[in-house]
Write a structure and sequence with these properties.
Number of domains: 2
Shape: flat
Radius of gyration: 24 Å
Number of strands: 2
Strand order of the largest sheet: 1-2
Helix content: 25-40%
Structural class: alpha+beta
Distance between the termini: 55 Å
Largest sheet: 2 strands, antiparallel
Number of helices: 2
Order of helices and strands: EEHH
Length: 116
Amino acid sequence: MIASGGPFKPSLILLQKGGAGGKGKGGPAAPAAVAEVFDLSKVVPVNLLKEGPEPEIKPDSEYPPWVFTLTDERPILEDLVMKGLENVKPADMKRVFRLANKRRIKANNIATAKTS
């Protein structure tokens, strides 16, 4: 399963839903917190909707191969530039230019910042 591929170990998780309890400004008491227990080896508690089931974890064979590359380490800008731009893969070239542009903008902002 996806969760078992890395250092993450599936276990139980306890989530609380509901208010803090007690009365506030003379109004009715807020509902008490409801605890839910999830077995992380079967479901992932990421459902954004109030109702509906939590997504279940599927076998690795049902996920596309690119999902498993999301946690791979990517080289930093200096490593890519040290290789030489002619040796950088086309997929990393866009990243090189984006990181270089971001650095240039930050340096320009620092240089032109008003001193108080």
